[in-house]
Amino acid sequence: MRRSKQPSTMQASTSPARKRPRPGFYGDGDACCELQPLKASQRASTAFSDLPTEVLVCHVLNSLGSADLCTLMAVSSRLRDVQTAHDSQLWGAIVAAQWDSPLTVDAVALAGSHRAFALCKQASLGAAASGGGWARPCEFELQAVLARISSCLDHTGCRGVKPAGSKAAGGSANGCTCPGPGAAAAGAHAAQQPSCQVLFLLDGSGSVGDEEFTASTSFIARAASTMREQMPGGVKISVLQFSNDVRTEWEDGAPDAGAAPLDPGAFESTIRAMVRMNGGTNIAAALTSCGKLLKKGWEPVAGDAAAAAAAAEAA
């Protein structure tokens, strides 16, 4: 009995072979279609510079420090413009986190931007760190301090300050108790008394380093120059240095009608040439000497008596 022949498993199939799609095509066999590339407007850009401004600021720049922000400003004009437009959000957060104080607000206003202040501040801190010395205030902080001092000298020709809202007859709205320009004693009073007295008390003890002492004397010279420019002939400046003892480094003479104007160069050279006393820190003796010197600076003179009488009569 013959067995029927079974087709061999190795025999080639008679069904037609399926065509494999070529790269760049999709589909099956003859029905495959060619893939069309997306247009440029249809593709989502992955470039960092093409990120929307909101995403760039809130999710990228807002998490960076000052060094990285400075680096990005040098990458492209767009990144620089974005930082400038969002200065308060980006650099303001850095300033508030590191140097938050009422003085900083004034310093930022003088700098023109949070970024300008932060870079100036970091430069002063970096110079101190590299030299291992004391971190002195930056330029804008010094300007802010001087501006505050100047704001206290916005009155000229007056010594006393009356309560807010009061006004002496013939005086000024800021509370000046001096008689007005028409009073007979006004000329003598203005000539014999400065409009204010400023005393600088400088720590020269051993706890103060040479760099700190030099920075302090430089500030005194600069502050005094600012005050004299704003109130020429109307401010009396004294400088005391203390350690174990107290030493008077400078005291303006009492102004009078025949006195020659003070030489600003003499004051500055004297202050900058000061030598640190070294030693202990006797604060009690320093404050006592300050009180005596300030009281001495406001001793009544004939002009004061005449001015006070004229003001009382006018009131």
Automatic annotation (TrEMBL):
Disordered: region residues: 1-24
Start-end of Polar residues biased regions: 1-16
InterPro entries assigned to the protein according to its UniProt record, in alphabetical order: F-box-like_dom_sf, VWF_A, vWFA_dom_sf
PROSITE patterns named among the record's database cross-references: VWFA
Domain of life, per lineage: Eukaryota
Boundaries of every VWFA domain copy: 197-287
CDD domains cross-referenced by the UniProt entry: F-box_SF (cd09917)
Protein name as it appears in the record: VWFA domain-containing protein
Organism per entry: Chlamydomonas euryale
